[in-house]
Amino acid sequence: MSISIVLERDDRLDRTTSLEVQVIGGVLLVTASLRAGDELVVRTPHRLLGTERAVGDGPVTVAVPALILPRRFEVIVAVRRDGKPHRLASLAGTASVPVVASDAAVRPLLVAGLARGGTTLLMRLLREHPALLVVDAYPYEQRHAAVLFHQLLATAAPGLGSVALPAGSIGRSREPGPIGNPYFRPELPLFRFLATEHLAARARMTAELVDLLYREVGGQAGRPAATHFVEKFVGPVLTCAMDHCYGRTAELVLVRDARDAAVSQQSFNERRGFDGFGIGGDELVAVAQRIASAHLQQYNDRVASRPDQVALIRYEDLVRDPVATLDAALGGLGLGVDGSVLGAMVEVALGDVEMQRSHMTSSSASASIGRWREVVDDAQAAALDDALEVFDRTYGYGRWAGGGTSA
Fold it and tell me: Which residue, among 252, 70, 28, has the nearest Cα to 159 in the 3D structure?
């Protein structure tokens, strides 16, 4: 594993705050001399990589393994002092990790999306694909590979204990490192071994365990020749690690009009009798705006950063013309099948009465499109258009309907 970087120093904080950046094996080490109470923050423009707080005056180090860095990355180093962030430097570089799962029998196909965005329908459709493996348990949210990769990053990647794994990867909790963990001691002679050979061995073991598990799933499903397993809601940190280990990770990113998704979240909460989405009593505009913001984050994390490995699907297209939509998306990822097979997949999935009864809050999937218009007045509709301007332009909704997505 290797990382190459170019450092650009920003002295707006103060010139007494020293900064040192070094690479040991597959680990980027960022060290700053801080005051007591300061916090060193290392992040990409779109997500957190690591933080460490200074207990007293002196050096603080954040270690970032190559496994969680995109192949081409930009990293921002900042210091949070008295509650305010101050940019200290920026790094640009490349991360190279040996592919450890090139001979894997099954490879990842990940599904990204948001709650009430149609991912259950998409997973149900993919379950019928002859070359794909979906663990057969509604609502298809079992993330066995993600759990194993989470364990890899939490236990074998030096310094990852300071990284908050995002909600939707495995869970919402941080993964603290145990006291005395050598992964947080880059000054120890053992660190270089941990950051190179040991980390590579752990990555190989993880990929082998994933392969073993999904070969069993394939055998039980009568698909021993399946080429890909499918898991949804795998966060960007874990996706990045899988991408390095497998060499290429295919991904379907599903987006739905944030207006309809917000109505669906509110309706599903009412149906279940509790707030499962954390929206409380917020107005529809505020809920839709949060959903739109999360979708834009996914666009930056996934679609824009790896366009050759990602197929973007709009929920509305999937519902209105599932065969053509799946044909374009799966074909672009090298997973295309004959039209008659796609037709059979759609027939079986859309005939799943139990899924519809358990999961839907409208009379049909088609009826869920544009449903938001039934619950807002003209003033709220205008407010939604204003609040979702960037989302609409990016994904082709609202005033931009029919215009496709922007780059």
Answer: 28
Q: How far apart are CA 136 and CA 139, in angstroms?
A: 9
Contacts of 134 (CB under 8 A, 6+ apart): 123, 126, 127, 140, 229, 230
Closest CA to 236 of 153, 292, 157, 330: 153
Is residue 372 very low, low, confident or very high in pLDDT (cuts 50, 70, 90)?
very high
In whole angstroms, what is the distance from residue 116 CA to residue 4 CA?
A: 40
- Cα(81)–Cα(38) distance, integer angstroms: 5
Say how far apart CA 7 and CA 61 lie, in whole Å. 16
Backbone angles phi, psi at 236, to 5 degrees: -65, -30
Distance, in Å, from the CA atom of 247 to the CA atom of 244, rounded to the nearest integer, reads 5
Give, in order, the Cα–Cα distances in Å from 9 to each of 15, 20, 68, 86, 270. 10, 10, 23, 12, 52
Q: What number is the average pLDDT over the span 28-53? A: 85
pLDDT above 60 for 107:
yes
Length of the chain in residues, anyone? 407
* CA 314/CA 400 separation, integer angstroms: 14
| Whole-number Cα distances in Å, 120 to 127, 186, 285, 345 | 10, 43, 24, 14
386 CB-side CA count, 13 A: 8
> Are 168 and 239 contacting, i.e. CB atoms less than 8 angstroms apart?
no
The pLDDT of residue 403 is above 60: no
Residue 236 CA to residue 239 CA, distance in Å, equals: 5
Rounded distance, CA 18 to CA 111, Å? 42
Tell which residue, 360, 356, 378, has the closest CA to residue 369: 360
User: Distances in Å between the alpha carbon of 361 and those of 36, 121, 154, 373?
Assistant: 52, 13, 38, 16
The DSSP H or E segment spanning 377 is none
Average pLDDT over every residue of 19-26: 83
| Residue (of 368, 361, 220, 240) closest to 306 by Cα position | 240
Q: Where residue 242 falls among pLDDT bands split at 50, 70, 90?
A: very high
pTM over 0.90: no
Question: What percentage of the chain has pLDDT greater than the value 70?
Answer: 86
